[in-house]
Amino acid sequence: MNAIRTLMSGAAVTALAGALAFPAVAQDAATDTDVIIVTALKREQNLQDVPISLEVVSGQKLDDFRANDFKQVMNYVPNVFVQSTAGNDTIYIRGFGSPPANFSFDQSVSLYVDGVYAGRNRQAQAPFFDLERVEVLRGPQGALFGKNTAAGAVSIVSAGPTREFEGEANALYNFDQKGFDVSGFVSGPLADNFGVRLAGKVINQDGYIRNLANGDKEPKTKQQVFRLTAKWDASENLDITGKLEYANRDMEGGITVSSPLNTGQQPRRTRYIEQNPLGEEGTSTKSVMGSLTANLSLGDYTLTSITGYSWFRGDIVNNFDQSIPGGGVTANSVYNKFLEDFNQVSQEIRLLSPTGQTLEFIVGAYFDRANYKLVQYGGFDIAALSYFGLLRTNFDQDSKTASVFGQATLNATDALRVIGSLRYTRTKKDATFGGQLIYGPFALRPLTSAAGDLSEGLTDPSVTVQYDITDRVMVYATFGKGSKSGGFVSNTYGTIDSTFQFAPERSRNYELGLKSAFANGAVVFNAAVYDTKFKNLQVSVYNPSTSSYLTSNAASATSRGVEASLTVNPIPNFDITASGAYQDLEYDDYPGAACLATQPTTECNPTDPVSIANNNLAGYAPALYSKFSGNIQAHARFDLPSDLKMDVTGIVGGRSKYFNSDNQSPTFGVQKGYAKVDARIQVAPQDDRWHVALIGKNLTNKLTTGSSFNLPAPITAAPRAILYVEPARSISVEAGVRF
């Protein structure tokens, strides 16, 4: 294993060093790069023609590195952060996202899977499986994507049926997590006008943290996912595509480890967890997602209908590492369990005009209806209080969303375009909340009830001016707005009618961008500068003094920054891409905020509700935001004897330091800046009919944390910091065949 790790580390360094050693691109060596087609504006377009700060990650790249969750997208897309928690990971773009503490939050960064809105992360458990591409749109996208895209949108496009029969099977063994990852597909026509694609993936792997209580490595992953896609070309004017996906994912164990409160973070790969009365720690989720897409040609126009269905049921049991910093263990004093049940049906219809006209347009309407239920159990076994008890809360929400939208593009000249978009969205929600004592001498947390309903209308406009300086150099300027609907507090003890509801979130964005290609397309450079402002930012932060969460609307926050990427193809079979972002983010006004660790008690006293009500974090930066993030990717292909070839790919991605505790503790709440290295070495014949590959992720074994918080007394006999540790180094071997 040491030899394998040495080989992988050396391969990554060699690939990246070789990339940096190449001289400037020579004109005679340049060749046109592949055109990347995206549908960010609901039409198929060249990526370089789209006036949006947009990153595209191919399905092949995600598959090459066995990306199974959103966390791994961070290596490819600057200004994107995924917060790791016990089971409710959330996405942030340009520093904005929806905190995971309030489970019922709609996400500020919306996910769309084949056009179907998925605002909760467990709706799509294996989103990077058998894909064409992932499009990450930074900044508000309220006009065309519409629902809850105040900070951005992620559009996932899965692979479809092929015109010729083909298939693929891949098997991977992970040496560090001692398990396998098997996937494959078969695709082809069943008739002249009817094709299908069946894809599947099965994972069974250990984790990367040793539980000293039972000797297991956690979290163990057991996952099965299957997707069936069928496309029917009913006539020359009509095609219909149906997709149905089933996924079952079990994560046995957790990712929390203890760390001192008075030092910097000390993430480890050991923990001590005994089973609690609520069962084994981990998450278990089953989900179904389906879509039916029809495209009807009406002369030069295209009418598109997307019908979606999504369902999931989740079971999350949380524990916290019982290890005491400095040695020993303490009793299991606090634990919780969350049961989720969600279903959604949706319908979108839109009409696209032909392209190449002076005026082009898209008009459409969208509707969805959803129900979300959450049952929370909170268990306490606190020796200092002689308390043993169990609480339960119930949350039930129904929601309806309806919107109409349109976009018009005026091709004023061959080089100048003006694009205007507008969406109006009407949202209705009603919800109930209630708590009860299951057993125990008294309710350790306030048990209350609440009920509410809301009806709101939001308008999201955008205007873009786009100008082609040359055939390969385009600039644009954008003004746009985004929004996210209001809602209700789902899992905070003591919630009453007056604290149950929070207001909608609004954002606006100014952006200037450049997209350019030189040397016959061998050099591609894109950049954007932006100023994004949020009003009524929805937040939920932990107050360790009361061991509860404060959910509210922060008045406003502003993020300003620059994003850029450079791709160079200096010679055939070699390319290098560098992308990076800088941002400056702070609250403009945040009254009633929970106290920060750096605030003296004279400024904010966490035990005094009046002091908290008078606290204002204007001028402070939110947690989970880094000033710098970026990556370098290099790929080289070498011809070998016997009609073979070798592909070497290296990726280095990282970010500067950030606070990952709500109270922004300068000791236990800071994740230092880091860079992580991934590499892949593959040998295959020229026709790619088989391959063998060695894959290394996080080769330098950087232990980083996604979240942290203070577990205080008297909730525990040994106060300590709890860190959520992200994956350690892993080395895998993969073999595959194509037919």
Net shape: globular
- How many strands appear in the DSSP assignment? 41
Mean pLDDT: 90
Proportion of residues in helical segments? under 10%
The total of helices stands at: 4
Structural class: mainly beta
Q: Which spans have pLDDT < 50 for at least 5 consecutive residues?
A: 1-33
> Ends: how far apart?
32 Å
For the largest beta-sheet, the strand count, sense and barrel status come to: 22 strands, antiparallel, barrel
Radius of gyration: 26 Å
Strand content: over 45%
Structure notes:
This protein is mainly beta and 739 residues long. Helix content is 5%, strand content 57%. It is built from 4 helices and 41 strands. Strand 31 (548-568) and strand 32 (574-589) form a beta hairpin. The chain is globular and about 75 Å long.
Layout of helices and strands:
Layout: H1 2-21, E1 37-38, E2 45-46, E3 54-58, H2 59-64, E4 80-83, E5 90-93, E6 109-113, E7 116-118, E8 131-138, E9 152-158, E10 166-174, E11 179-191, E12 194-205, E13 209-211, E14 217-218, E15 220-235, E16 238-252, E17 256-259, E18 270-271, E19 282-298, E20 301-318, E21 334-352, E22 359-382, E23 387-411, E24 416-439, E25 449-470, E26 473-484, E27 487-488, H3 497-500, E28 501-502, E29 505-518, E30 523-543, E31 548-568, E32 574-589, H4 609-613, E33 628-640, E34 644-655, E35 658-659, E36 670-671, E37 674-685, E38 690-697, E39 705-711, E40 720-725, E41 730-738
